[in-house]
Amino acid sequence: MRILITGANGQLGHELQRNAPQNVELHALDRRALDISDGDAVAKTVARIAPHIIINAAAYTAVDKAETDHDAACAINRDGAAHLARAAQAQRARLLHVSTDFVFDGQGCTPYLPGQTPSPLGVYGASKLAGEQAVQHSGADALIIRTAWVYAAHGHNFVKTMLRLMRERPEVRVVADQIGSPTAAASLARALWALIAKNAAAGIYHYTDAGVASWYDLAHAVREITQTLSGETLAPIYPIRTEDYPTPARRPAYSVLDKTATTALIGPAPHWREALSEVLRELLQEE
Ligand SMILES: NC(=O)c1ccc[n+]([C@@H]2O[C@H](COP(=O)([O-])OP(=O)(O)OC[C@H]3O[C@@H](n4cnc5c(N)ncnc54)[C@H](OP(=O)(O)O)[C@@H]3O)[C@@H](O)[C@H]2O)c1
Fold it and tell me: Which atom of ligand 1 lies at the shortest distance from residue 146's CA?
Protein backbone atom coordinates (compact mmCIF):
# COMPACT_ATOMS: atom_id res chain seq x y z
CA MET A 1 0.00 0.00 0.00
CA ARG A 2 1.34 3.43 -0.99
CA ILE A 3 0.91 6.15 1.64
CA LEU A 4 1.51 9.89 1.35
CA ILE A 5 2.12 11.75 4.63
CA THR A 6 2.03 15.56 4.68
CA GLY A 7 3.62 17.63 7.44
CA ALA A 8 6.21 14.87 7.84
CA ASN A 9 8.43 16.91 10.15
CA GLY A 10 5.76 17.70 12.74
CA GLN A 11 5.16 15.74 15.94
CA LEU A 12 2.59 13.43 14.36
CA GLY A 13 4.32 13.25 10.97
CA HIS A 14 7.51 12.12 12.67
CA GLU A 15 5.78 9.44 14.78
CA LEU A 16 3.76 8.19 11.80
CA GLN A 17 7.06 7.37 10.10
CA ARG A 18 8.58 5.75 13.20
CA ASN A 19 5.50 3.61 13.79
CA ALA A 20 4.69 2.70 10.20
CA PRO A 21 3.93 -0.96 9.46
CA GLN A 22 6.51 -2.74 7.33
CA ASN A 23 4.25 -3.50 4.39
CA VAL A 24 3.68 0.13 3.34
CA GLU A 25 5.51 2.28 0.78
CA LEU A 26 5.86 5.62 2.57
CA HIS A 27 6.14 9.00 0.88
CA ALA A 28 6.61 11.36 3.83
CA LEU A 29 6.78 14.98 2.66
CA ASP A 30 7.64 17.93 4.86
CA ARG A 31 6.50 21.48 4.15
CA ARG A 32 9.41 22.14 1.74
CA ALA A 33 8.55 19.04 -0.30
CA LEU A 34 4.81 19.78 -0.33
CA ASP A 35 3.13 22.98 0.81
CA ILE A 36 -0.50 21.94 1.24
CA SER A 37 -1.72 25.51 0.82
CA ASP A 38 -0.55 25.33 -2.82
CA GLY A 39 -3.44 23.66 -4.67
CA ASP A 40 -1.49 23.02 -7.88
CA ALA A 41 1.41 21.46 -6.01
CA VAL A 42 -0.98 19.21 -4.08
CA ALA A 43 -2.76 18.06 -7.25
CA LYS A 44 0.51 17.38 -9.10
CA THR A 45 2.19 15.59 -6.17
CA VAL A 46 -0.80 13.38 -5.46
CA ALA A 47 -1.11 12.51 -9.17
CA ARG A 48 2.62 11.70 -9.36
CA ILE A 49 2.76 9.52 -6.24
CA ALA A 50 -0.69 7.99 -6.77
CA PRO A 51 -1.13 7.05 -3.11
CA HIS A 52 -3.82 4.68 -1.88
CA ILE A 53 -4.01 6.70 1.34
CA ILE A 54 -3.11 10.30 2.20
CA ILE A 55 -2.54 11.16 5.87
CA ASN A 56 -2.70 14.90 6.48
CA ALA A 57 -0.46 15.61 9.46
CA ALA A 58 0.28 19.16 8.25
CA ALA A 59 -1.36 22.04 10.06
CA TYR A 60 -1.00 25.58 11.29
CA THR A 61 -0.86 24.80 15.03
CA ALA A 62 0.17 28.13 16.62
CA VAL A 63 -3.08 28.69 18.53
CA ASP A 64 -2.30 32.17 19.90
CA LYS A 65 -0.55 33.46 16.77
CA ALA A 66 -3.55 32.40 14.67
CA GLU A 67 -5.66 35.11 16.35
CA THR A 68 -3.72 37.75 14.37
CA ASP A 69 -2.73 35.51 11.46
CA HIS A 70 -6.16 34.49 10.22
CA ASP A 71 -5.23 34.23 6.53
CA ALA A 72 -2.27 31.91 7.08
CA ALA A 73 -4.23 29.66 9.47
CA CYS A 74 -7.06 29.36 6.94
CA ALA A 75 -4.74 28.88 3.94
CA ILE A 76 -3.27 25.81 5.67
CA ASN A 77 -6.01 24.40 7.90
CA ARG A 78 -9.01 25.09 5.64
CA ASP A 79 -7.68 25.44 2.08
CA GLY A 80 -4.89 22.89 2.53
CA ALA A 81 -7.42 20.31 3.70
CA ALA A 82 -9.69 21.18 0.76
CA HIS A 83 -6.83 20.79 -1.76
CA LEU A 84 -5.92 17.38 -0.31
CA ALA A 85 -9.55 16.21 -0.32
CA ARG A 86 -9.97 17.25 -3.96
CA ALA A 87 -6.75 15.50 -4.95
CA ALA A 88 -7.72 12.40 -2.96
CA GLN A 89 -11.03 12.22 -4.74
CA ALA A 90 -9.43 12.66 -8.16
CA GLN A 91 -6.99 9.87 -7.35
CA ARG A 92 -9.64 7.66 -5.66
CA ALA A 93 -7.38 7.72 -2.59
CA ARG A 94 -8.60 7.63 1.00
CA LEU A 95 -7.85 10.72 3.12
CA LEU A 96 -7.10 10.60 6.86
CA HIS A 97 -7.40 14.16 8.05
CA VAL A 98 -6.39 15.12 11.60
CA SER A 99 -8.40 17.71 13.52
CA THR A 100 -8.74 19.02 17.05
CA ASP A 101 -10.70 19.27 20.30
CA PHE A 102 -10.57 23.05 19.73
CA VAL A 103 -13.56 22.75 17.36
CA PHE A 104 -15.62 22.63 20.60
CA ASP A 105 -16.16 25.53 23.00
CA GLY A 106 -15.46 23.47 26.12
CA GLN A 107 -18.64 24.50 27.90
CA GLY A 108 -19.70 20.83 28.25
CA CYS A 109 -19.02 18.58 31.22
CA THR A 110 -19.25 15.16 29.58
CA PRO A 111 -16.97 13.86 26.79
CA TYR A 112 -17.72 15.37 23.37
CA LEU A 113 -19.22 12.94 20.86
CA PRO A 114 -18.00 13.01 17.24
CA GLY A 115 -21.45 14.14 16.05
CA GLN A 116 -21.87 16.94 18.58
CA THR A 117 -22.23 20.47 17.19
CA PRO A 118 -18.86 22.26 17.09
CA SER A 119 -18.50 25.84 18.23
CA PRO A 120 -14.86 26.95 18.18
CA LEU A 121 -13.66 29.73 20.47
CA GLY A 122 -10.82 31.07 18.31
CA VAL A 123 -9.29 31.36 14.86
CA TYR A 124 -7.30 28.12 15.09
CA GLY A 125 -10.38 26.07 16.03
CA ALA A 126 -12.48 27.82 13.38
CA SER A 127 -9.87 27.18 10.68
CA LYS A 128 -9.66 23.51 11.67
CA LEU A 129 -13.46 23.21 11.64
CA ALA A 130 -13.53 24.79 8.17
CA GLY A 131 -10.97 22.16 7.11
CA GLU A 132 -13.19 19.36 8.44
CA GLN A 133 -16.16 20.78 6.55
CA ALA A 134 -14.16 21.11 3.33
CA VAL A 135 -13.14 17.45 3.63
CA GLN A 136 -16.71 16.33 4.37
CA HIS A 137 -18.21 18.34 1.49
CA SER A 138 -15.57 17.21 -1.01
CA GLY A 139 -17.12 13.79 -1.46
CA ALA A 140 -13.70 12.18 -0.90
CA ASP A 141 -13.50 8.90 1.02
CA ALA A 142 -12.29 10.45 4.26
CA LEU A 143 -11.76 9.80 7.94
CA ILE A 144 -11.48 12.83 10.18
CA ILE A 145 -9.66 12.05 13.43
CA ARG A 146 -9.90 14.64 16.17
CA THR A 147 -7.27 14.58 18.86
CA ALA A 148 -6.05 16.80 21.71
CA TRP A 149 -3.07 17.97 23.78
CA VAL A 150 -0.44 16.32 21.56
CA TYR A 151 3.22 16.08 22.65
CA ALA A 152 6.31 14.09 21.65
CA ALA A 153 10.06 14.01 22.18
CA HIS A 154 10.40 15.56 18.69
CA GLY A 155 8.89 19.04 18.26
CA HIS A 156 7.62 21.89 20.40
CA ASN A 157 5.03 21.16 23.07
CA PHE A 158 3.82 21.74 26.61
CA VAL A 159 5.71 18.76 28.10
CA LYS A 160 9.09 19.95 26.83
CA THR A 161 8.32 23.54 27.83
CA MET A 162 7.44 22.45 31.38
CA LEU A 163 10.60 20.39 31.69
CA ARG A 164 12.68 23.40 30.62
CA LEU A 165 10.86 25.84 32.94
CA MET A 166 11.15 23.49 35.92
CA ARG A 167 14.92 23.47 35.37
CA GLU A 168 15.26 27.23 34.83
CA ARG A 169 12.90 28.78 37.38
CA PRO A 170 12.50 28.60 41.14
CA GLU A 171 8.79 27.73 40.74
CA VAL A 172 6.28 27.23 37.93
CA ARG A 173 2.58 28.19 37.86
CA VAL A 174 0.23 26.21 35.63
CA VAL A 175 -3.45 26.50 34.74
CA ALA A 176 -5.52 23.96 36.68
CA ASP A 177 -9.04 24.70 35.41
CA GLN A 178 -8.72 23.47 31.81
CA ILE A 179 -9.34 19.73 31.49
CA GLY A 180 -8.42 17.48 28.58
CA SER A 181 -6.61 14.28 27.62
CA PRO A 182 -2.85 14.49 27.04
CA THR A 183 -1.93 12.45 23.97
CA ALA A 184 1.47 11.19 22.89
CA ALA A 185 1.99 11.65 19.15
CA ALA A 186 3.24 8.04 19.08
CA SER A 187 -0.06 6.71 20.47
CA LEU A 188 -1.98 8.83 17.96
CA ALA A 189 0.21 7.55 15.11
CA ARG A 190 -0.37 3.93 16.18
CA ALA A 191 -4.12 4.60 16.35
CA LEU A 192 -4.09 6.02 12.81
CA TRP A 193 -2.24 2.97 11.49
CA ALA A 194 -4.72 0.72 13.31
CA LEU A 195 -7.69 2.61 11.79
CA ILE A 196 -6.09 2.16 8.36
CA ALA A 197 -5.60 -1.56 8.99
CA LYS A 198 -9.26 -1.89 10.05
CA ASN A 199 -10.38 0.01 6.95
CA ALA A 200 -12.64 2.07 9.24
CA ALA A 201 -15.82 3.49 7.71
CA ALA A 202 -15.69 7.13 6.57
CA GLY A 203 -16.68 9.73 9.17
CA ILE A 204 -15.43 11.48 12.28
CA TYR A 205 -13.49 9.62 14.96
CA HIS A 206 -11.97 10.80 18.22
CA TYR A 207 -8.63 9.61 19.50
CA THR A 208 -6.74 10.68 22.63
CA ASP A 209 -4.80 8.74 25.21
CA ALA A 210 -7.00 7.45 28.07
CA GLY A 211 -7.82 9.41 31.21
CA VAL A 212 -8.18 13.13 31.83
CA ALA A 213 -6.00 15.80 33.39
CA SER A 214 -5.62 19.52 33.84
CA TRP A 215 -2.52 21.27 32.48
CA TYR A 216 -1.42 21.46 36.12
CA ASP A 217 -1.85 17.67 36.52
CA LEU A 218 0.14 17.08 33.35
CA ALA A 219 2.96 19.38 34.48
CA HIS A 220 2.93 17.71 37.89
CA ALA A 221 3.24 14.28 36.28
CA VAL A 222 6.14 15.51 34.10
CA ARG A 223 7.90 16.61 37.29
CA GLU A 224 7.19 13.45 39.25
CA ILE A 225 8.14 11.02 36.47
CA THR A 226 11.27 12.97 35.46
CA GLN A 227 12.50 13.15 39.06
CA THR A 228 12.01 9.39 39.41
CA LEU A 229 13.73 8.60 36.12
CA SER A 230 16.67 11.02 36.36
CA GLY A 231 17.09 11.69 40.06
CA GLU A 232 17.23 15.47 39.48
CA THR A 233 15.28 17.95 41.60
CA LEU A 234 12.87 20.14 39.64
CA ALA A 235 11.14 23.37 40.67
CA PRO A 236 7.77 23.00 42.42
CA ILE A 237 4.55 23.61 40.46
CA TYR A 238 1.56 25.58 41.70
CA PRO A 239 -1.98 25.62 40.26
CA ILE A 240 -3.47 28.88 38.91
CA ARG A 241 -6.72 29.82 37.16
CA THR A 242 -7.12 30.56 33.45
CA GLU A 243 -7.86 34.21 34.29
CA ASP A 244 -4.44 34.45 35.98
CA TYR A 245 -2.69 33.46 32.74
CA PRO A 246 -4.25 35.52 29.92
CA THR A 247 -3.50 34.38 26.36
CA PRO A 248 -4.50 35.90 22.98
CA ALA A 249 -6.69 32.85 22.17
CA ARG A 250 -9.45 31.60 24.48
CA ARG A 251 -9.18 27.89 25.20
CA PRO A 252 -11.91 25.33 25.97
CA ALA A 253 -12.28 24.68 29.71
CA TYR A 254 -13.38 21.08 29.14
CA SER A 255 -12.21 19.36 25.99
CA VAL A 256 -12.44 15.65 26.71
CA LEU A 257 -13.33 13.68 23.57
CA ASP A 258 -15.57 10.60 23.60
CA LYS A 259 -13.69 7.83 21.81
CA THR A 260 -16.10 4.93 22.28
CA ALA A 261 -16.42 4.32 18.52
CA THR A 262 -12.66 4.35 18.01
CA THR A 263 -12.06 2.01 20.96
CA ALA A 264 -14.65 -0.43 19.56
CA LEU A 265 -12.61 -0.61 16.35
CA ILE A 266 -8.99 -0.60 17.51
CA GLY A 267 -9.11 -1.36 21.24
CA PRO A 268 -8.33 0.82 24.26
CA ALA A 269 -5.80 3.66 24.27
CA PRO A 270 -2.93 3.61 26.78
CA HIS A 271 -3.38 5.80 29.86
CA TRP A 272 -1.77 9.22 29.36
CA ARG A 273 0.64 8.70 32.27
CA GLU A 274 2.04 5.51 30.70
CA ALA A 275 2.44 7.27 27.35
CA LEU A 276 4.05 10.27 29.09
CA SER A 277 6.58 8.00 30.83
CA GLU A 278 7.57 6.54 27.46
CA VAL A 279 8.16 10.02 25.98
CA LEU A 280 10.05 11.33 29.03
CA ARG A 281 12.29 8.26 28.99
CA GLU A 282 13.09 9.00 25.35
CA LEU A 283 13.70 12.70 26.06
CA LEU A 284 16.04 12.00 28.96
CA GLN A 285 17.97 9.38 26.97
CA GLU A 286 18.55 11.94 24.22
CA GLU A 287 20.11 14.47 26.63
N1 LIG B 1 -0.33 19.80 18.94
C2 LIG B 1 -1.50 19.65 19.56
O3 LIG B 1 -1.61 19.82 20.78
C4 LIG B 1 -2.73 19.26 18.79
C5 LIG B 1 -3.96 19.17 19.46
C6 LIG B 1 -5.10 18.80 18.73
C7 LIG B 1 -5.00 18.52 17.40
N8 LIG B 1 -3.80 18.64 16.76
C9 LIG B 1 -3.75 18.36 15.33
O10 LIG B 1 -2.89 17.25 15.13
C11 LIG B 1 -2.26 17.37 13.86
C12 LIG B 1 -0.76 17.19 14.02
O13 LIG B 1 -0.28 18.23 14.87
P14 LIG B 1 1.21 18.24 15.40
O15 LIG B 1 1.14 18.37 16.87
O16 LIG B 1 2.00 17.16 14.79
O17 LIG B 1 1.65 19.67 14.80
P18 LIG B 1 3.09 20.24 14.52
O19 LIG B 1 4.11 19.51 15.32
O20 LIG B 1 2.97 21.71 14.62
O21 LIG B 1 3.33 19.82 12.99
C22 LIG B 1 2.64 20.40 11.95
C23 LIG B 1 3.52 20.28 10.73
O24 LIG B 1 2.82 20.85 9.63
C25 LIG B 1 3.77 21.56 8.87
N26 LIG B 1 3.13 22.57 8.05
C27 LIG B 1 2.69 23.80 8.40
N28 LIG B 1 2.19 24.43 7.34
C29 LIG B 1 2.32 23.58 6.29
C30 LIG B 1 2.00 23.67 4.91
N31 LIG B 1 1.44 24.77 4.39
N32 LIG B 1 2.26 22.60 4.12
C33 LIG B 1 2.84 21.49 4.62
N34 LIG B 1 3.19 21.37 5.91
C35 LIG B 1 2.92 22.39 6.73
C36 LIG B 1 4.70 22.17 9.87
O37 LIG B 1 5.90 22.52 9.24
P38 LIG B 1 6.78 23.75 9.78
O39 LIG B 1 7.33 23.29 11.09
O40 LIG B 1 7.80 23.93 8.71
O41 LIG B 1 5.84 24.90 9.92
C42 LIG B 1 4.86 21.04 10.87
O43 LIG B 1 5.94 20.19 10.51
C44 LIG B 1 -2.69 18.73 13.29
O45 LIG B 1 -3.77 18.54 12.43
C46 LIG B 1 -3.16 19.49 14.52
O47 LIG B 1 -4.12 20.48 14.19
C48 LIG B 1 -2.65 18.98 17.42
Answer: 7
